[in-house]
Prior knowledge:
5 helices
Amino acid sequence: MSEQGFDQGAGPGAGRQPTEEELQAAYEAELKRIRVEDVIAQTVVSLLNLGGRRAGLAAGTESERDLGQVRQAIEAVRALLPLIEEQLGPDARTLRDALSQLQMAYAQLSGAGGPGPEQPGAAPADPAGGTGADPGAPGEPPGSGDAGPAQRSGRLWIPGQ
């Protein structure tokens, strides 16, 4: 692209807007270079940053708190991270740590793992420290009576469990 001069500060054509053909060529070159893993990794980082902001963790973002958005960010990261962990190598640990911190913040903000305020009709937290969920049949883990296949597999993150 530098031979056209539209991305340089000096030289012929400096300061002009790129043509449609030049933009299309640059876009095609970028699509040839970029990998799906790159997009997933960038999405994970963006979701973690936005989730932290919606949790009100950054100074001055307390008014933006939205626990439903935080939970959605957590679930999305949990779904995407396994797809790229191998390619990330040691960097995956950094993202896992950030996810853990966001999960802890969510659990604390939503009432120590109990149902959050964005869940109307949810059972109140158990004063004995439980989640207030129906324990199901005797001998089953708490909440397993109404658990779907994803929750039973252990891959679904539920605060307080």
